[in-house]
Amino acid sequence: MIVYSVRCGNGHVFDEWFSNSTDYDVKASAGEVHCPDCGDSHISKAIMAPSIGKSSPAAPPPNCPVGGCGGGACSFANDF
Ligand SMILES: [Zn+2]
Question: For residue 37, how far is its CA from the centre of ligand 1 (angstroms)?
Answer without folding.
Answer: 5
